Amino acid sequence: MASTGSASTQNPILIDPRTRFSDLELSLPPQGFPVLQRDFTTKPASGEHSYKGRGRLHGRHALITGGDSGIGRATVIAMAREGAKVAINYLPDEEPDAEDLANFLAKEGIEIVRFPGNLLDEEFCTMLVSRAEKALGGLDILVNNAGTTGILNNDITTYTTEQWDTVFRTNVYAGFWLTRAAVKCMPPGSSIIWTVSDVVENPATGTHDYAATKGAVASLVRTLGISLASKGIRVNGVAPGFTYTPLLAVAGLTTELLNQIPQTLPLGRVGQPAELAPVYVDLADATMTYASGGIWSNNGGAQAYTLG
Known about the structure:
Belongs to the short-chain dehydrogenases/reductases (SDR) family. Keywords: NADP, Oxidoreductase. InterPro entries: NAD(P)-bd_dom_sf, Sc_DH/Rdtase_CS, SDR_fam. The chain is an alpha/beta fold. The protein has one domain: 3-Layer(aba) Sandwich (Rossmann fold). Helix 3 runs parallel beside helix 4 and helix 4 runs parallel beside helix 5. It is globular.
């Protein structure tokens, strides 16, 4: 089936990247905040019916921010099915998506720990790490995935300081606060993974605030990969390309524009969260001992983006 592209773990089959998920009719819910995954007519594919766990993270303990929807949701599903105990963070307004995910995994006998709260609060970030470590019985995977963006806008003169601060504090400061707290309790062999973005290498129009924060995150991944080596903690970033998530509607994209974009992409379609999650699992895998300080691209071969 084109929409799932699932493969048997006993008899693997090839999956054509051009046709996987190509039968999905993509549409975005109305712009606003919050944008919930449950409000999508065609929901992002987060691996619900395609990801097969193999026990690669058995005995591990993961805290994943922005874990209620999009790439975060897909990463939660993948890591939980790989055997990790998982805690997620999300904004209180996003509780419906978090509840949907928890109920979905509960049917498989998987329980996740939920910690709603705003990562713009430095004290909350520190407390979140402590609470997650206690609830999970340890912490050896931190996924700094939560992020936001302003509305697509080419005119820098209309960007407000408030918007700039919010995007930077969400995308950069929160991950810094969480990492600062986490390294105090993470044992050697732990993995910290940041969601970066392909815009670091392939700038897109109208994304001044978002692109600037992701450039900062990419630098943090590289410098932390050096400084935390002495503690035996690996740090990496995943750089998604254009992916079908609620963040697109937050950025102001419409369904019409969303369906024009694939014409400019090498594979002729946008990515799905389910295609990102395996990279996060790979980077968390205990055998990836020499992978640190790198930005792992997953962008479908795109070299540039045209938005509008």
